[in-house]
Amino acid sequence: MMPFCSQMEQNNPSLNVAWFQHPHLGNAQNLHHSNAQDSSSLECPNHVDWVGLDDSDHPQNFTTLRKWTITFAMSAMTMWVTFASSVFSAATRTTANEFGVSSEVMTLGTSLVIFGFTLGPLCWGPPNERYGRRLPLFLGYAVSANFQIPVAVGHNVETIMASRFL
Questions:
Q1: pLDDT tens by residue, 38-59
Q2: What are the phi and psi torsion angles at 113 (to 5°)?
Q3: Distance (Å, rounded) from C-alpha 137 to C-alpha 96?
Q4: Membrane-crossing residues (predicted)?
Q5: Around Cβ 135, how many Cβ atoms within 10 Å?
Q6: Phi and psi dihedrals of 72, rounded to 5?
Q7: Listed residue (118, 117, 90) closest to 106, CA to CA
Q8: Neighbour tally for 62: CB within 10 Å
Q9: What's the pTM?
Q10: Among 154, 70, 153, 151, which Cα is nearest to 116's?
């Protein structure tokens, strides 16, 4: 059986991939494919690479400010998600008394967030592959942030539970 990339190469022989040449490591082709006979993986249409050494989309070419901004933003978002998932547990007894349910029922508010974490990759994974990480990541954060509003102003347990899940 022929590898997928070899099949694609036979169907479209004009495929040509320019390899990124790292200034310290040399040509990636020499590093990863020292066997010259196995060139089918070099021309795989699924290979994504940078245009060249000065490609502005290459993370190694980002300015220091941009690198720190991205690092801070991702760290803050990770901290926010962790905080948002567990902060509800501190108010379990208070909200249980307010809505007249047991504290076990209100514990479900914390559990549903974790259950949403398990199903989230099924929802956001395909757009992540198609559009890159930025759009689905920020769209997911926006959806999550907007569903915190019904949790804060919800008048019944069902609204709170559904909003915590989403």
A1: 444 456 776 777 777 788 888 8
A2: -65, -45
A3: 33
A4: 68-88, 108-125
A5: 13
A6: -65, -45
A7: 90
A8: 14
A9: 0.56
A10: 151
